[in-house]
Write a structure and sequence with these properties.
mainly alpha; 3 domains; 9 helices
Length: 180
C-alpha cells in the first residue's frame, strides 16, 4: 500500500535541504539530524540522494566543458568529437589511417579502431568489394566437375529410365566406384 502524501517537502528533498544547510556532514549525521526534525529516513536513501547529486553535478560539468569547447573553439573536447570534425573536413573516401594522420598532425593520438568505430556510427561504413582473384576463383569453381548442370540431370534421368529405378543406379555406381 502506498504511503500517504504528507505536507511539506519529500524525504529526498529534506535530505538535500539538510545537506545544503550543513556542508560536509556524513550520512549518519544526516540521518540523526533529520530524525530529530521528525523526518524518518534510512541511510540507504541518504546514500542514493548523495549519489544522484554527484551524478547531476558531474553531468552539468561535462556539459559545460563540451559547450565551452564547441562555442569558443578552444580546448580539445572528446576524441570522438575531434574524429567527427576531422572526418567532416575530409573528402571521400575517408580512411581511418588518414583521420589518424590528420589528428596526429594536430597533436592528438587516436587509434585506428576508435576512428573506425566513430566513422561507422556516423554512417560512413566501409564498403567492401570482392577482389578480382576471388571472382575468378568462384568462376573456376562453377566449371568444376563437382557441379551438376541441366544436361547432367537429363542424362541421369535417362539412365534411371534405362536401368529401371534410382536404387539400381545407386548399386551400379557403387559397384563402379569399387572397380576403380
Amino acid at each position: 500500500m502506498a504511503r500517504p502524501k504528507s505536507e511539506g517537502p519529500s524525504r529526498s528533498q529534506s535530505i538535500r535541504n539538510y545537506m545544503r544547510a550543513n556542508k560536509g556532514v556524513t550520512v549518519p549525521q544526516i540521518v540523526d539530524g533529520l530524525r530529530a526534525q521528525g523526518v524518518m529516513v534510512t541511510p540507504g536513501l541518504v546514500y542514493q540522494v548523495k549519489a544522484a547529486g554527484r551524478k547531476k553535478r558531474a553531468a552539468k560539468q561535462a556539459m559545460k566543458s563540451v559547450a565551452s569547447t564547441h562555442s569558443t573553439g578552444i580546448g580539445t573536447g572528446t576524441k570522438a568529437d575531434l574524429i567527427r570534425d576531422a572526418a567532416r573536413g575530409m573528402k571521400k573516401p575517408i580512411r581511418p589511417r588518414d583521420v589518424v594522420a590528420t589528428l596526429k598532425d594536430q597533436g592528438t593520438d587516436v587509434s585506428r579502431t576508435q576512428v573506425s568505430q566513430v566513422l561507422a556510427r556516423m554512417g560512413m561504413k566501409r564498403k567492401r568489394r570482392g577482389s578480382g582473384k576471388a571472382a575468378a576463383g568462384s568462376a573456376a569453381r562453377s566449371t568444376n566437375s563437382t557441379s551438376i548442370s541441366i544436361d547432367d540431370l537429363v542424362a541421369a534421368k535417362k539412365l534411371v529410365g534405362q536401368v529401371g529405378s534410382i536404387e539400381k543406379v545407386r548399386e551400379a555406381l557403387s559397384a563402379l566406384s569399387r572397380l576403380g
